[in-house]
Amino acid sequence: MGIVVLAGGVGGSKFLWGLAQEMDPERLTAVVNTGDDLELHGLRISPDVDLVTYSLADRVDVDRGWGLAGDTVFCMEALGSYGLPTWFRIGDRDLATHIFRTDALRQGQRPTQIADAVRRALGVQARVLPMADDPVVTYILVGDGAPRYLHIQEYLVERGAVDEIRGVEYRGSGRARPTPEVLAVLAEAETIFIAPSNPVASIGPILAIPGILRRLGEARAPIVERADGQVSSLGQRRGVRPGRGAVLPVHPGRCGRHADRSCGREAGGRDRGAGDPGGGRGHHHAGCRGEAPGGAARPKPSGDRVRPRNVI
Q: Which 8-state DSSP code applies to residue 249?
């Protein structure tokens, strides 16, 4: 029995850090978004998992809101001299985490095992669980012309969130299965928090996994999903209204149309590095059932808002 937090981004990591100061951290578990994972320079990078881990280890760069405090970027500068992309600025010591993860994946380890090894190496007592070992990737549909999909990091960091947004897609979410570790902690939790993270970029990918939604609906623990704060630009254009209330309505058994209630802002009033993802005129959920971009069937939105009995 313990506290479980669904989280991602700067706001979620700070929320977790605060909880860890007020309770026995060994009773705290973070279930973390992996929808913004990417591969770059041959390395597997898991930004939200690393951000949560670095924050709980008291090693995060608080000025930037991500990365390791006091890190340097000599490797990035050298890569730039060879004409390689450097828009995703990885610190030199941060690179060690990505090298370790990539090597462990090649040896057949699961992302869950790797995240646990990293948090132990950094002295983090709380558990840090990726939302799934299966890949789920958040893509943003942009532009007024032909559909164009950008990886969320490309949209946020490389392009600075300047594109007009038409929708959001969580590719692979319909096929992704929660890990046994995630299912176990949700079943055994005494309280489940949905952190004040970006509701579309950080929490949406977690709740887009049908197995997690089902387990939340079955959970005996109360689900606390109230947060104060402003809504990110993506949330605003997706129809999220500021104020106090549920971060996301929960649709057991489906990915859910999640952007219509209030949410918490990322800490410091901004979200996830270079900029907030922006909203759109149409909500895309092709990825919730694994269809190809612009593919055929998409789930029909339900007019009924079904919420677990235990949501606070």
A: -
Angle of the 47-56 helix axis to the 111-121 helix axis, nearest 10: 30
Q: What is the pLDDT averaged over residues 214-238?
A: 68
Tokens of 293: 């971009």
Q: Which residue has the tokens 């939340």?
A: 216
Amino acid identity of residue 26, one-letter, is E
Q: Say which CATH superfamily domain 1-38+124-312 falls into.
A: CofD-like domains (3.40.50.10680)
Per-residue CA distances from 234 to 4, 131, 199, 279 (Å): 26, 22, 9, 4
Q: Are 167 and 141 in contact (CB under 8 A)?
A: yes
Whether the model pTM is above 0.90:
no
Beta-carbon-side half-sphere exposure of residue 246 (alpha carbons within 13 Å): 15
Domain residue spans of the chain:
1-38+124-312
